[in-house]
Structure formats: C-alpha cells, structure tokens
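Re: How this chain folds, sequence and tokenised backbone to follow
How to read it: Take the token row as a discrete description of the fold.
Start of record: The labelled sequence and token lines come straight after this line.
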Amino acid sequence: MKRIGNKLKELRKLNKLTLKDVGLRLGVDTSLISRWENDERQPGNNQLMELAEIFGVSFNFLVDDQEFRPVNFRANLPKDSEEYKGLVAVYLDAVQNAGNITRIMAGSKHKTSVQMPAFKVESLDEIPEIVAQIKDFYKLNKIVSLDELKGALRDKGVFIFEWSMPDKISGFTISGDYKVIYLNHNNSEARRLFTLAHELGHLILHGDQPDYSFESNLARRTKPEKEANAFANELLLSERKLKKLVKDHSIKFRNPAFLRTVAGVFNISPDALFYRLMQIGHFSPAEKKNFVTPYIPPEVDLTTRVRDIDTQIDKEYFTRIYSGYFDDEISFSKLKNLLFTDEETLSKYLEGMESLIDDNIGKEAQ
C-alpha cells in the first residue's frame, strides 16, 4: 500500500479532529492513529473505509497517490458550524473531482493543454492594460456574457463546473494538473459571471502560487482578492467606460430603473453597479437603501452537487466519461460518482440520451 500518512493527517486537521476524536470513532488507541499518520503502521481495509467516511472522502481517494494539499479558508469558523462543514465538504468533493479529471485525461488519446497568459501586478493601475490583452487573447466581445466566457476558457483547456454549494461560496479554483473552476449554480447568472471573471483573474495574476485557491464570500479584503475583483470589474465594465456613462447620464443614474437597465446591458447585477458607482464617488453609502436590494439567501438543495448535467458539468469532461460508460468501461454507479449527481437525475438523463440516439439512428435509416 502507498504511504498515506500525511494525507490522513491533513484530512484529520482539515476536519478539525484530534487524534483522540478519530481514535474514539474507530475504537482504537490514539497512539495507533499517530503511527498511521507517520507511516509506521498501515490501517486495514475496514479501518480505511471507516476513515474515509469520517473524513468525507471516497475509499479510492484515500488510498490512491493523488496529492492532497492543505487549504486555508481564511475564516476562523467554529469546527461545528454549518458554514465550516459546508466549506470542507465542497472542497473535498472538488479535490476528488480534480483527481478524476487527471485520471480521465491521462487515459485519453486526445490530450488537453491549458493555454493561459500570466502577469505580475505591482499596482491596480496595471489591470486595464492586462484586461485588454486578455480580451484579445480569448477573443472576447466588448460586452462579455457568461456563456461566452465559459466557452472561451474551455477552448483554452480550462474545466468549468457549476455545483450546488452553500451560499457562502460563490466560486473557487483548483490548480493542479489542470485548471478547474467551480461556480455556485444557485447564484444568479450575473453573480456567476462575476465569479468566473474573478477566478480567471486569480489564475492569470496569481497562477504561480503553489497551493489550491479556494475563495469564498468570507474573504474579500486580501491583496489577491482585491486584484481579482479589480480584474473582474474591468473585464465586465471598464472604469473608463463607467466614468463616461456617468458623465453622459449623471442624472439618469439617480433613477433605479435606469441603473438596472445599464446593469443588464453589461450582464452585471444592479447591486454590483451601485457599488462601482459608489467607489468612483457618484453615490454615497447613505444612498445604498434606495438602490441595493436586501439579500435573502435562497433555500438550496445540498444533497447532491448536480441536478442538471447539461448545464452544470464541463462538456469536455462529460464527453470523456460518457464515452467510457457507452463502451461499458464505466459502470452506472461509477458514472454517478464521477458526476457528483444522484441516481434519479442520472437515470432520467441517460434515458433522454438513449432516446435521442435512437431517433438519430431512425432518421439515418430512412
């Protein structure tokens, strides 16, 4: 068996469990847990299955050679809080999904390489020029939409998934063998677009950082976050364009309906546009109540990450694994796990796929 002691230790620490906590769950002495973590002893298969359940990962992930890197959520949350548990669950699912991508792509005849420029930022004043180069590199329109940006990034080798996640998580990136961006599918389209642009900013401006990038709404004031926010704002609505709009329509912007219209044109939320206008001095914080809608977190289903395979799963990834399923190399159960979906959703989707294939065969036979 491979040496997995460090992985056990990092998973235990991520779940904020002590050696004693794990020992009590397994009914073994803490000294044995310590030996496992130091690779002095190896757990048996039954113990490994119990450890996988305790840590919230699959048995295969626990015993394979996929590297597991620690992550800092930049938020001092109590270990028993639902927010922390939600962060950990999503992160662990994403790490396992990234490993699945690596394995699936390694067995493919058609290799995918990531094409992405890299920049160093000394000042936020450099962002507009960087964004101009990025728009040219990805051949983006002046006004960027979510579908356009997703398509442009996928064409350059980036994997994009939209998962059902806790409201506190808007999106994050895992940079390992491949660049994988996760968006919160429960968010509005405007918010998902900003998040995608924000994560692209991280990859371009901070892509040389060795650790996984896991960003949530709990941390927005660090230097990398400010840079990624500035990048996303400039990509969707440049400061130069915004100031020109204010100059030409200063009085109209006092009308909430006009503000909403402009926000819709640029595929950003009215709230985001208000804050941009406040930053350049057009609005005062006291006017917030007249323009910003109080946010009410939606009720979301977190029992499964994916309920709409077509929109939530990266198309390149799905094509590869569906091919394996179609050729009887991947079982239904494994396909379900690879997609992080539930049995009912997958069954209905596959029935639709089979019906579509039958219809196409019938048309060709006519």
Remarks:
- The CA atoms of residues 105 and 111 lie 7 Å apart.
- The domain at 4-68 is CATH 1.10.260.40 (434 Repressor (Amino-terminal Domain)).
- The first strand starts at residue 159 and ends at 163.
